[in-house]
Amino acid sequence: MHIVISDDHQDCIRNLSCFEKLNGHTVEIFNNSVSGIDALAERYKNAEAIVLIRERTVITKELLDRLPKLKVISQTGKMTSHVDLQACKEKGIVVMDGRGSGSATAELNMLLILASLRKLVEEVTRLKGGLWQGYLGDQLAGKVLGVYGFGRIGKQVCHLGKAFGAKPLVWGRDSSLQKASQEGFALASSKEDFFRTSDIVCLQLRLNDETRHIVGPQDLAMMKPSSLLVNTSRAELIVPGALEAGLKQGHPAYAAVDTYESEPVLGAEHPLVHLSNCLCTPHIGFVERENYEAYFGIAFDNINAYLVGSPQNCVN
Fold first, then answer.
1. Upstream peptide bond of 264 is cis (omega within 30 degrees of 0)
2. Which residue of the set 234, 251, 270, 288 is catalytic?
3. Annotated catalytic residue 234
4. Inter-residue contact 238 to 244 (CB < 8 Å)
5. Is 283 annotated as catalytic?
6. The pLDDT of residue 48
7. Among 251, 270, 283, 288, which one carries the catalytic annotation?
8. CATH number 3.40.250.10 given to 103-280
9. Matching CATH topology for 2-100+288-307 and 103-280?
10. Is residue 55 among the annotated active site residues?
């Protein structure tokens, strides 16, 4: 089978142990991202199977119309809204997804929190520039760690934060609040209470029609002048431009973000990258060796299962 894998930004997939599962297949790997129907159609023109890395590539009906050879799409991680599942079904294209542990993203949340509170990057930069201490950082212990959403990753962030001595405070939909309460975590009485009370706000929501732009300027304005906002989920959870404006006004005081509306961000062409009170990382939350072995191992297993007539993890 001719398999195309795009968006392998680190050129690491061929070096994974699970890559041997594709022995016997013809595999094309591209290390960059392209956009536009013509560029995507050219990239995938020979593909009988496509392995998607999360939501880095959007598969529309218009694109599918130009890919007559395509039979299978295997998604790393859970499928979201970036693939037109109905169009795939109409064309007889089988779509399968997988899963990851979420531990890598939960760990990155803690890394960003600790690095932000202790001004780690700034201090390293000072030392490399020939200077010594320049900032008085803060500890995590004793801080109110607000976690918006109590899914797989949000739950882990609460437990990790508690281990550091933080005081987790959860907000989200009713089912999330119920689960958090059963785990023994404190609940905010309202969205307003959540943003006013939290020293740190971690966004741990899936992006969908209900959560898109769920955090607006009015929410950020309620945050403490010493607060930190961390977003490793999706940039679109926040109203466009609201975080940049809030950081300039001091609410929150600092932010750490791992996701952006349009990715990859090249040439530092995003306003948050240039703010001194924002720590920006290039969407590395799930980009970790063990996680990749799990993600791609399942994605490759899906293709092989399809070929022997036993498709698994089908979503359409």
1. yes
2. 234
3. yes
4. no
5. yes
6. 98
7. 283
8. no
9. yes
10. no
Q: Are 237 and 216 in contact (CB under 8 A)?
A: no
Task: Say how far residue 245 (Cα) sits from the centre of its chain.
Answer: 22
Domain boundaries, the chain: 2-100+288-307, 103-280
Q: Which tokens is 73 given?
A: 């799409």
Count how many Cα atoms sit within 13 Å of the Cα of residue 61 in the half-sphere of its side chain.
6
Give the residue from 139, 115, 106, 105 showing the smallest Cα distance to 256. Answer: 115
Nearest to 148, CA basis, from 65, 211, 57, 78: 211
Q: What is the CA radius of gyration of the chain?
A: 21
Q: Convert the pLDDT of each residue in 187-206 to its tens digit.
A: 999 999 999 999 999 999 99
Backbone torsions φ then ψ of 229, nearest 5 degrees? -115, 130
User: Considering only CA atoms, which of 156, 158, 151 is closest in space to residue 185?
Assistant: 158
Among 166, 155, 147, smallest CA distance to 102 is for 155
Options 55, 123, 244, 263, the catalytic residue? 263
What pTM did the predictor assign? 0.92
285 DSSP assignment: T
Which region among 31-40, 97-106, 140-149 has the lowest average model confidence (pLDDT)?
97-106
What are 47-60's pLDDT values in tens digits?
999 999 988 899 99
Whether the pLDDT of residue 120 is over 80: the answer is: yes
Give domain 2-100+288-307's CATH architecture.
Answer: 3-Layer(aba) Sandwich (3.40)
